[in-house]
Amino acid sequence: MRLVKIGIASVNTTVGAFRQNTDRVLDLARKMAAEDVTLGVFPEQVIAGYPAEDLVQWQGFIDHQWPELERFAKETAALPLVSIVGVGIAQQGVRLNCAAVVAGGRVLGLVPKEKLPTYNVFYEGRTFGHGQPGMAETHRGVPLGDYLFQFDFGVVAPEVCEDIWSADGPMRRRAYSGGELVVNLSASPFRLGFWDTRRELIATRASDHQVTIAYSNAVGSNDGLIFDGGGFINQNGRHVLETPRFQQGYSTAVVDLDRTLRLRTENTTWRVDRESWVSSGGQKVPTVDCTAAVKTQREKLSYPVPAHRSFFLPAPDTRRTARVALCEDILDALSLGVGDYFEKTRAFKLFGIALSGGRDSLLTLLIAHRYAKRARPENPGSLIQAFYMPSPYSSQQTRDAAETIARELGVPFQVVSIEEAFEREKAAAQQMLGSAKLTPITEQNIQARIRAQRMWNWSNSCGGLFLQTGNMSEKSVGYTTIGGDLMGALAVIANVPKTVVMYLLDYLQETTGYEGIRKVLAKPAGPELAHDQVGEEELMPFPILDACFYLHAGEKLTPSEMRTALTAMFPEVEAAHLGSYVDRFVKLFHQSIYKWVQAPLSLHIGNLDLDRERALQLPVVTGSGWLRDA
């Protein structure tokens, strides 16, 4: 047996905080060594923080990373531990995103990332250069390139994040060249429902290439990207370890690398494929001999037996229901995003929310409070200030709902009327118009803008983080006010569809029993900027609105294709009504792009959202002729 204890770390980094990031890695490495860990795996770009984006174009940003990597090597020199750490380097005018192999007080090698994503939220191809098959260079006297690393416990094949997502990645040739333990350093953002995809992919890669895979993911939030952390160990397709998410730390497991080699001998398909690769001239990846660098201590390791002590019976089922998993993942991700933005910017002292008594601001409050309970458990409400700013159209019902939930959460609550300011602003606007009359939509927008201005004034004076509360569905059709409810310092639920907002509130009402949630849900959703406003009456039923958004923005369907799809999805609705909803959605969607580009930074939880810099990149000025049916 060749027993190896692997530690999988999730580290919450801040971009550019090199020393603090390295200190976090050092702390976890020391704790791993104290638990007889053989190999410690740390996330992608863990020294610099991720994503650094165009900061990597600054030579100083790159130059500051290497001393921290050397400091890490020096301070772990006495530990019988091999560490794989993410770092950025500059090599002959090219920036490379590398996995650094560290042991015995030295950096033993650097393996650059080959697959650079430039889709969805990623822009790595803009800033980093590609590692290449067969690359064999040196950087500061350290081997840099396509290498394997031989230690006294086995052969390690480092790689970085996207390399595992490509079927044509480096894993195949490295496994055929003798790599046994593939170590993937990742900074993969949270995407709703994506955790199972990661697990399945890693199992598939481990099975296809007959290797043991150790996968570590970053945790935390930087600039609206949320990293859920967690990691996996999978041996030749068999699940070994799944680590906790949404928290910094590490988990360990022992594997027998002799099992990986034995399974290769049993798998004729793998052997034949390797023979074919060799005979067709496959370029063997060279191995760096690191056996003299460190002597690992594996004498105390025990054979990895199942916790329930059976190789044949299933372990107890601890899986969450689909409903719980969906809701808890979204809530954990958004509260992590809110909290990290609050802490890492170091600019704010508390949160501020304009609480309307409606669904969106309620969910935003509950997410901020979820973070506050973790950050200040003795008095979470002291981190939040809620304001209710009634106009002539505000109802007693929404005021009571807002006041009730604030009281239940222990959040300070102020009522500051905008009625007088509303009348003054209407008069001023009318004076500017002369004989023309104020439109009803202008009167609505005046109210929203007064509220936003007051929130900004409060924020400027007390260091408060003004949270924007709008949802993705209404934002997609411009059902929001520039200078009003579109404004804020951080948009918490801007990428959460309205149907999901309501689903989350139903779940939270069930699990918390808050009376304030029940009171909010008892009233139809509407902005209360005019008499008896109901959002679904002014727009369309929210399930149909969200379906339109998904089909058009996500699946890229034309209006005629959308009508066909919606007819199958909503057979109870007349086709003529569905057609009118499609036409209305498409018109409003494309007319509202100019609003999105003025919205604040938002938190990302999926592949589909409205952040023009991160996901859906649409021109503001465009013709609409192509949308008409042929």
TrEMBL record:
List positions binding deamido-NAD(+).
Answer: 445, 474, 595
| Highest taxon in the source lineage | Bacteria
Sequence positions that bind L-glutamine = 119, 188
Q: Which residues form a coiled coil?
A: none
The GO terms this record gives for MF are: ATP binding; glutaminase activity; NAD+ synthase (glutamine-hydrolyzing) activity; NAD+ synthase activity
Which residues are involved in binding ATP? 354-361, 469
Which reactions appear under catalytic activity for this entry? deamido-NAD(+) + L-glutamine + ATP + H2O = L-glutamate + AMP + diphosphate + NAD(+) + H(+)
**What InterPro entries does this protein map onto?**
C-N_Hydrolase, C-N_Hydrolase_sf, Gln-dep_NAD_synthase, NAD/GMP_synthase, NAD_synthase, Rossmann-like_a/b/a_fold
EC category name:
ligase
- Under which EC number(s) is this enzyme classified? 6.3.5.1
Q: In which pathway does it act?
A: Cofactor biosynthesis; NAD(+) biosynthesis; NAD(+) from deamido-NAD(+) (L-Gln route): step 1/1
Q: Which GO terms describe its biological process?
A: NAD+ biosynthetic process
The yes or no answer to whether the keyword ATP-binding is present is yes
Q: What is one GO cellular-component annotation here?
A: cytoplasm
Keywords noted in UniProt:
ATP-binding, Ligase, NAD, Nucleotide-binding
Functional note: Catalyzes the ATP-dependent amidation of deamido-NAD to form NAD. Uses L-glutamine as a nitrogen source.
Protein's recorded name: Glutamine-dependent NAD(+) synthetase
